Amino acid sequence: MTAVMLRPSPATAAASPTIDPVVAASPRPRWPWWTALAAFAQYGMLRHISRSELRPGDLLFYFGGSAHHVAMYIGGGMMVSASNPRDGVEVIAAWGPWYGSRYSGAARVV
After folding, report:
1. 68, 72, 74, 96: most buried by Cβ count inside 10 Å?
2. CATH class of the structural domain 19-108
3. From the CB of residue 79, how many other CB atoms can be counted at a distance below 10 Å?
4. pLDDT in tens, 79-98
């Protein structure tokens, strides 16, 4: 497991004030419904792309036909994800055994 610390740059925050994939992927144990709602809203707002179109920085959405988890694709079949407070932010396989069966789709912010 590789731990990473992510902070959006001022330029990133200014360019995309309503969609912050780092915040969207952050664990929110007090409001799990908020995280699910944010993921679903983001998935609905963004332009969907195929797996063959993926580039680093694209967002990946998981949980079958609807999205309840968002992660950021970093290339090479890997993603940055914050699935739960215990594991924190980690770099993991985007289509591993658990996530692969729950993949909803991908989207690009810009």
Report:
1. 72
2. alpha beta
3. 26
4. 999 887 888 899 999 999 88
pLDDT tens track for 50-72: 999 999 999 999 877 666 788 99
What whole-number distance in Å separates Cα of residue 27 and Cα of residue 13? 19
SS (H, E, C) the chain: CEECCCCCCHHHHHHCCCCCHHHHCCCCCCCHHHHHHHHHHHHHHCEEECHHHCCCCCEEEECCCCCCEEEEEEECCEEEECCCCCCCCEEEECCCHHHHCCEEEEEECC
Q: CA–CA separation, 98 vs 88, rounded Å?
A: 17
